[in-house]
Amino acid sequence: MPDACPVYRPRKPHLTPHHQCVQDHFDTFERVYEERFAKRYGFWRPYLKEVIYRYLECGDLHGGFARLVCQTCGRNFLLAYSCKRRYFCPSCHQKRVVEFGEWLCQHVLKAVPYRHFVFSIPKILRRFFLHDRKLLAALSRCAWESLKAFLHAAVPAPRATLGAIVATQTFGQWPDRYHPHLHVLATDGAFYGQGLFRVAPRFNLKDLEKLFRHSVLSMLLRKGKITRQFVRMMEGWRHSGFNVFCGERIYPHQKQSLERLAAYLIRASFAQERMEYLPEQAAVIYHSKDGKEQKTYDALEWIAAMGTHVPLRGEQMVRYYGEFSNRVRGTRRKAHQIADIPTILEPEISSAAARKNWARLIQKVYEVSPLVCSRCQGPLKVVSFIEDGQTIRKILEHLGLWLANARPQPRAHSPPGLRPLPEESHEDSYSQLPAREEEDYSQATPAHWDS
User: Fold this and answer.
1) How many other CB atoms sit within 10 Å of the CB of residue 19?
2) Residue finishing a domain among 280, 303, 334
3) Position 56 in a domain
4) What is the pLDDT of residues 128-156, one digit of tens each?
């Protein structure tokens, strides 16, 4: 007998505070956004509506599911689809975080020392990036150019190149504060010659900070966001508001530290376990990381703040420079120096590989296996995917689950397509529901269901 393994108990997103808050208030939020929130959080982005609707469907069997069968006892399970939305869905984004950390360490980073840098800008400049998200890419380039010039001066080898991964984050401890800053994982030195790497000496961060400040102000001046008078004013400040942090050196053998840092680069904008939703007061309480402070938000303001941190479709929040750039890695691929790898935003892997990857990631994050039978702990196998609307309804009605675990009736006006919750609801697992063992569920509806 194999050793007992903890069984994955699927999440119930409709019971989480974030989901309930969005479900109750999104329609009202959309109607009042221009009046209440546009000035503080920027213009309304239609893509946000799509993200939120997809999030509200995440983990809902009514939107489609996979059928799994235990290879030992033959029990059937239904596993609902996920939304795969970045930053707004805590569960889907957590999978992306773990996946990115592993991918970066296995396929991009080389066995050399690294350092973690954080580049911050003053509050007076943040509004420019809020109202023009294209500036975030330029901000990333400013940090890279500053760091490249600084390390080239510290490692004056001919044709030396360094590598860096620059991640843009727009949030801090409190998610309602738009705080664009950059987390950089960079080589602690430069590559040169034939496979040589020279470690950088100790350096003064104040000098790097001055380079970064000059680069950012020059960029904003070129783009017409500020004037020369504004630049002179900021250069005269004793404390400019620009800041550069540098962490301790991370050595190649510290693989867990590297993977944790790589995952931190794209961390979620909020921690759901630190959030409380008070439906009767239409309020959200959010606690600080150390638990010593808390802030109370109006429910609509909470949704507005969360939406601010959602990237546009295809918007890159992580960029690769120097030795880790797409061009350099592409050249190596063509030369067969490394194996072909997928992009992190839209991994191009087979469905079978994706399912195995999902199972492994769930096990890594929660220390349980999602593909283990809850009855006998035997292995589960995906045998079909149910996506046709009529077939979904017939299967769920046959199991007594149609509308049983659908999203609850919102307190505010419901966005289009939401289903009301019946008076009696089932207590079954929301995403991994046991199906009746005698039925063979495929895309074709069994004939006797029509009777």
Assistant:
1) 24
2) 334
3) yes
4) 999 999 999 999 999 999 999 888 877 77
